[in-house]
């Protein structure tokens, strides 16, 4: 979702067999850049649902969200303010099937091997590296910090 230059994004580090999945993007603003599966949160969409939807669209995998490394607020390379909600997920179904137009490659890799990537190889490297640091330091918080969507509440 974007409003006055503010973009809301859900991102997921997907774990399987002690490795994390990264994808190489083929988007105009991130050509040949490695990233975690992620995308815009649509208007009216629950953040947790958005994270699972983006993973499914980009990778074909179904995930269970089991934690979060937090919320990251930054100015992107396209000069938008981005508020990124980053989650930890584990595969519960589906088959790896990359979204053809937007994703060109994927790798299952040990988290500490992500440190070897050069800044120019990563999308928003300062943010990705902070996420990697949080994963390595196990700065992971319960998914319960995210509440259910409250749009139809009786307030």
Write structural notes for this entry:
The protein is an alpha+beta fold and 155 residues long. It has a single domain, classed as Nucleoside Triphosphate Pyrophosphohydrolase (Alpha-Beta Complex), CATH 3.90.79. Helices cover 16% and strands 43% of the residues. It has two helices and eight strands, in the order βββββαβββα. The protein has helices spanning 47-59, 125-136; strands spanning 2-3, 6-16, 19-27, 30-35, 38-40, 61-75, 81-94, 103-109. Strands 1, 2, 3, 4, 5, 6, 7 and 8 form an eight-stranded mixed beta sheet that branches. The longest helix is centred in the middle third of the chain and has 13 residues, at 47-59. The model has no long low-confidence stretch (mean pLDDT 91).
Short description:
With 155 residues, this protein is an alpha+beta fold.
Mean pLDDT: 91
Tally of helical segments: 2
Q: Point out poorly predicted stretches.
A: none
CATH overall fold name: Nucleoside Triphosphate Pyrophosphohydrolase
Highest CATH level, the class: Alpha Beta
Query: Can you identify the CATH superfamily?
Result: Nucleoside Triphosphate Pyrophosphohydrolase
Secondary-structure-based class equals: alpha+beta
Q: Name the overall outline.
A: globular
Give the C-alpha Rg.
15 Å
The CATH architecture classification is Alpha-Beta Complex
The major β-sheet equals:
8 strands, mixed
Number of strands: 8
Family: Belongs to the Nudix hydrolase family.
GO molecular function: hydrolase activity
Pfam family, one: NUDIX
Keywords: Hydrolase
């Amino acid at each position: 979702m974007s409003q006055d230059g503010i973009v809301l994004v859900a991102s997921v580090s997907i774990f399987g067999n002690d490795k994390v999945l990264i994808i190489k993007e083929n988007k105009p603003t991130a050509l040949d850049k490695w990233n975690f599966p992620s995308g815009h949160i649509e208007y009216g969409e629950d953040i947790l649902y958005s994270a699972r939807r983006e993973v499914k669209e980009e990778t074909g995998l179904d995930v269970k969200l089991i934690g979060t490394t937090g919320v990251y607020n930054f100015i992107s390379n396209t000069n938008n303010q981005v508020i990124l909600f980053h989650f930890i997920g584990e595969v519960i179904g589906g088959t790896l099937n990359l979204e053809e137009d937007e994703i060109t490659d994927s790798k299952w890799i040990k988290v500490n091997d992500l440190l070897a990537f050069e800044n120019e190889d990563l999308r928003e490297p300062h943010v990705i590296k902070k996420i990697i640091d949080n994963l390595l330091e196990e700065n992971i918080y319960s998914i319960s910090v995210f509440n259910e969507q409250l749009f139809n509440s009786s307030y």
